[in-house]
């Protein structure tokens, strides 16, 4: 497998007015990596993901995709997002479209695929996440877990190189969390490159090969899960984990 970085985040900072949300963020994502970003609410995790997906414009720094800085001028955000997909906390499905149409829309509009090819792709990925029986349903007819699985299928149908997950289980009832994490575990096992903002510590510990702990807009600690979880170097990491793992 080519081990050249897919994404390199270099000295990334983001401010909203005078409020600095991210400061000097640095890390690298290689093919097949599953990187979990953990930390308390308000630590900047979701803003980081939104910057990487170009939903927010970084104030400083670089986001290199295959060595090219995509945070600068001259980048088509839609084309980039088709290769670096995102699954949102709140699903972001179109309520006026059925499940199949939701999974075809991006393929048709961004990738310019023909209707039959887009339909075949959508059905393939809906089947992969266990949602093929629901192709004619509208989002309001589905549970939260089912909607999130459709959102994952929609992202997969674009056949991205990297998938970003922004707290994909935090809007779900507890009994639905498992079905979404199961899909994500299967994707990781299949070699999908994933960047996951999550409060699911078991997922971060068991599925990731890289864990990034953020606090107050900076990376306090990063490394292999066994190091971060079993032998954290920083007092803030220890405090966060003791609180979370105790709860």
TrEMBL record:
Signal peptide: none annotated. It is found in: Cell membrane. Belongs to the ABC transporter superfamily. PANTHER family: AMINO ACID IMPORT ATP-BINDING PROTEIN, GLUTAMATE_ASPARTATE IMPORT ATP-BINDING PROTEIN GLTL. PROSITE patterns: ABC_TRANSPORTER_1, ABC_TRANSPORTER_2. CDD domains: ABC_HisP_GlnQ. InterPro entries: AAA+_ATPase, ABC_ATPase_HisP-typ, ABC_transporter-like_ATP-bd, ABC_transporter-like_CS, MetN_ABC_transporter-like, P-loop_NTPase. Pfam families: ABC_tran (PF00005). Keywords: Amino-acid transport, ATP-binding, Cell membrane, Membrane, Nucleotide-binding, Transport. The lineage of its organism: Bacteria, Bacillati, Bacillota, Clostridia, Eubacteriales. Residues 7-241 form the ABC transporter domain. Its main location: membrane. One of its GO terms (molecular function) is ATP binding. This is Amino acid ABC transporter ATP-binding protein. It is a peripheral membrane protein.
């Amino acid at each position: 497998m080519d081990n050249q970085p897919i994404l390199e985040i270099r000295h990334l900072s983001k401010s909203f007015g005078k409020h600095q949300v991210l400061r000097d963020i640095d890390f690298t994502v290689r093919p097949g990596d599953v990187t979990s970003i953990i930390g308390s609410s308000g630590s900047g995790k979701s803003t980081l993901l939104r910057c990487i997906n170009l939903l927010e414009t970084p104030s400083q720094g670089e986001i290199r995709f295959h060595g090219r800085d995509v945070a600068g001028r001259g980048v088509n955000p839609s084309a980039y997002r088709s290769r670096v997909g995102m699954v949102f906390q709140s699903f972001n499905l179109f309520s006026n479209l059925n499940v199949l149409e939701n999974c075809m829309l991006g393929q048709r509009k961004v990738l310019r695929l023909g209707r039959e090819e887009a339909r075949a792709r959508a059905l393939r990925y809906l089947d992969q996440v266990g949602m093929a029986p629901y192709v004619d349903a509208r989002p309001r007819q589905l549970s939260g877990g089912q909607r999130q699985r459709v959102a994952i299928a929609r992202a997969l149908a674009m056949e991205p190189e990297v998938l970003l997950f922004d707290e994909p289980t935090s809007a779900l009832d507890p009994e639905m969390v498992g079905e979404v994490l199961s899909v994500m575990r299967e994707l990781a096992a299949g070699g999908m490159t994933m960047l996951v903002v999550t409060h699911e510590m078991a997922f971060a510990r068991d599925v990731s090969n890289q864990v990034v702990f953020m606090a107050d807009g900076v990376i306090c600690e990063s490394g292999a899960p066994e190091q971060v979880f079993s032998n954290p170097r920083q007092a803030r990491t220890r405090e966060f984990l003791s609180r979370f793992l105790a709860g």
